[in-house]
Amino acid sequence: MIKRSKLFGNKTRVTFCLPADQPPGHVSVVGTFNDWQPGRHELKPRRDGTRTVSVPLPPGDHRFRYLASDGIWLDDEHADGVGPHGSELRL
After folding, report:
1. Which of 8, 9, 49, 66 is surrounded by the fewest CB atoms within 10 Å?
2. What's the domain range around 57?
3. Dihedral angle computed from the Cα positions of residues 71, 77, 83 and 89, in that order, rounded to the nearest 10 degrees
4. Does residue 28 have a pLDDT over 90?
């Protein structure tokens, strides 16, 4: 799931959310906004049974994917679209 919140100025806080146990192990969100660097935006467990990470993003089109342990790549069905290069956000 993806949540969006407007921030001061022109940025939007995007919160990426997955179930706490699916997929198992560590999961990072990687994309055009962090040069596809794993570990930079790792999802952290929450009390409600999910894990999340929030990233402030400027307006524009952004591509991302989730990278789980063992090199498992996942797209987000709640994104604005999913293409050959991953999930898409339009802010």
Report:
1. 8
2. 2-90
3. -100
4. yes
